[in-house]
Each structure stands twice: as structure tokens, then as C-alpha cells.
Design a protein that fits this description.
single chain; 145 residues; alpha+beta; Alpha-Beta Plaits; globular; binds adenosine-3',5'-cyclic-monophosphate; Nucleoside diphosphate kinase-like domain-containing protein
Length: 145
């Protein structure tokens, strides 16, 4: 089944946004919506609320509100898992060893500045798409069987 996920190009990778968008398309994702946005610290805290209280939360919020980001709603067969496979593990140094060639290996700089984000489950994808595109109807896309 076709599903949607939320992808973000983070501040450190915005200079490579066109290159990353090409990779997205070459991997068979459809871009349903996209926008460039500069989050306030409050909005970044709200978006990452599930990480509230973790030791990296303040630096994550400061980073994600430091400059514009590229936000995409992507659709594909099993998009959530497919996008997370393409981006690779959170830590780019680990990504380099276990998933060479993944987006975080290629474009990530460190654990915080790891180039891209992807929703981790169906529920977080719904929440994150609504957060970034408040007028969205978020339901699985019906496909012909
Ligand atoms: P992301 O997939 O956007 O989800 C949460 C983000 O928090 C993650 O990518 C990283 O940017 C950041 N993050 C997660 N774990 C750590 C960590 N141990 N140290 C610093 N930043 C982290």
C-alpha cells in the first residue's frame, strides 16, 4: 500500500537540497507537498516534543531553528520504512559503517547535524504532516488492487 511520510532537509544540508531532491525522485518517491520554512525555537520544540527532556533536546531545538529547512510530504509504497532506509541511522559516523551511501553518510556532519529527518511510524507521520501542512488530509492513499 502507498503511504505518506514527512521528510525534512535540515539546515546543514540545505545547500544540497536540489541534489537530495533528485535522489528522492530517483528512488521512486512522489513529492506531494513541499515548503521551505524557518521554524521558531518554540515550533522546533513542539515538533520534537517526543524528545523533550533528553540531553540533546536544547541543541536539537537551537539547530533546527537556526536556519530554513526543506519540508516534504513523500508518497510511495511503504514510504515510512523506505525513506528511513534511504536516510540511514541517526549518527552519520555509524551510518558510514553500516549503511554506506545512505543520505546521512553522504550529507550528515554529526549526530545533531545529520542532514535529514524521516517520520518513524505511521502515527508520527500523521502528526508531523499535520504539523507542517496544517490543511492536509492525512489518510493512506487508496490504490487499485
Ligand atoms: P531526527 O531523525 O530528526 O530525530 C531526532 C533528532 O535528534 C535526530 O534526528 C538528531 O538530529 C537528534 N539526535 C538524536 N540523538 C542524538 C544524540 N544522541 N545526540 C545529538 N543529537 C541527537
Amino acid at each position: 500500500y502507498v503511504e505518506r511520510t514527512l521528510a525534512i532537509i535540515k539546515p546543514d544540508a540545505m545547500d544540497k537540497a536540489n541534489e537530495i531532491e533528485d535522489i528522492i525522485l530517483r528512488n521512486g518517491f512522489t513529492v506531494i507537498q513541499k515548503r521551505k520554512v524557518h521554524l521558531s525555537p518554540e515550533q522546533a520544540s513542539d515538533f520534537y516534543v517526543e524528545h523533550y527532556g533528553k540531553m540533546f533536546f536544547p541543541s536539537l531545538v537551537a539547530y533546527m531553528s537556526s536556519a530554513p529547512i526543506g519540508v516534504f510530504v513523500l508518497a510511495k509504497e511503504k514510504a515510512i520504512k523506505a525513506w528511513r532506509e534511504l536516510i540511514g541511522p541517526t549518527n552519520p559516523f555509524k551510518a558510514r559503517e553500516t549503511h554506506p551511501g545512505c543520505l546521512r553518510d553522504t550529507y550528515g556532519k554529526d549526530q545533531t547535524r545529520n542532514a535529514v529527518h524521516g517520520s518513524e511510524s505511521f502515527l508520527s507521520a500523521e502528526r508531523e504532516i499535520r504539523f507542517m501542512f496544517h490543511d492536509s488530509i492525512v489518510e493512506p492513499i487508496a490504490t487499485e488492487q
